[in-house]
Amino acid sequence: MQQAQLTPSASARKETFALRIYIFFAYSTAAMVVAFIPLYFMDRGFSEQQIGIIYSTGPFISIFSNILMGLASDKYRTIKRLLMVLLFGQLVMLSLLFPIENFALVCLVMMGFYFFQTPINPLSDSLLLLASQHTGTPYAMVRIFASMGFASTAYAIGLILKQVGSGWTLYLALATVLITLGLTVFIKDYQGQARKIDFSGFLKLIRQKNVILFFLIILTLSIPHRMYEGFLAVSMRQLGASDSLVGLAWLISATSEIPILYLLGKYGHKFKELPLLMFAALMYAARMWIMSEIQDPRWMLATQTMHSVTFGIFFSTALRYLSNLIPDEFRASGQALFAVVWAGLAGIISGMFGGFIYESFGREVFFKMGAGFALAAAAAFLLRAWLSRADR
Predict the structure, then answer these.
(1) Where does 196-392 sit in CATH, by number?
(2) Distance (Å, rounded) from C-alpha 284 to C-alpha 261?
(3) What CA–CA distance (Å, rounded) separates 107 from 292?
């Protein structure tokens, strides 16, 4: 009898350990994609505008791949097998990049890579949430290993590439994907209740003026975030930063968000969402303006600490406001629309339009334009808060 009681607990600990190791390496690949793939293409001779176009293919294809993988997961009742297919697809696409020099072909292959890469995080999050119901381990206690994986990989890979050169970028990316694929063998394929995607919810959502205005403001603020994310490494490299310094910058930003997310989770309910969002937008404007003035890449490390009061406050507070804004029957559609705006449309605009601005007018104009978007969002949040108070 005693053995029967101990076995489930030991099994839960084992499953939790497997999930933590898996999510650690899954986000290690994300660190490679965000921090070092742009530098790899830069060293291969691509211009800022071309890098922006390559970067924008990810958000574009994510709109379709995430919906498709969600439908496939519901139909075939699996997450683990889809993760294995997606990771194998990433290996194939990264391998195809080695011999290709033509820009159009690189864009095509990267679009294929992003098709397999962008659904990994949402599917993994779904798996962690489902697993928490069985293992008894809170989602956050497993998900924090994703931030640790992103942060430590960004720094470690930067140190490695400083020694061996950016030509090893694809080999290291292949290694992280291959390790992640191997780790999927040890995780369970948890399943939730069958659910049906109701596309009519989108049509009902877009008829609500308040919802659409909110998403327009979110798009306005998401653009400077994606601009910063997409061109931080390029900017640092142009100012003479080494790969290790770029990796350290991403380490600082990833770790800085952890305490603020914890504090918001514990005390955030005591503050109203719109003032918090306005504050985050103002911090984004300050962060972008400082970036436009910096001439020494080492000072960019200081701006990375502002990630906590920009992205940390913005993302969690926006989701909290959205949950109050949208009726329960449209919750799933609202979350999907948020993802399309935040990850899809903002990424496309910042990649294609931002890349053109960066190449044509330079880094200073690029980041000051981002500051302008952030200030516009702050003003819009202030106006919305004032109107909400006037309606009471």
Answers:
(1) 1.20.1250.20
(2) 17
(3) 28
- Measured distance CA(146)–CA(85) in Å, rounded: 20
The CATH class given to the 9-188 domain equals mainly alpha
Residue 116 has a pLDDT of 95
The rounded distance, in Å, linking the Cα atoms of 312 and 177 is 27
* C-alpha 227 chain-centroid distance: 13
The DSSP result for 220-261, as a single string, is: HHHHHHHHHHHHHHHHHHHTT--HHHHHHHHHHHHHHHHHHH
**Structure tokens of 27?**
């986000």
Contact predicate 199/67, CB 8 Å: no
Closest CA to 243 of 32, 22, 17, 392: 32
pTM for this predicted structure:
0.77
Q: What is the mean pLDDT of the chain?
A: 85
Q: Where are the domains of the chain?
A: 9-188, 196-392
Express each pLDDT in 332-360 by its tens digit: 556 667 777 887 888 888 888 888 899 89
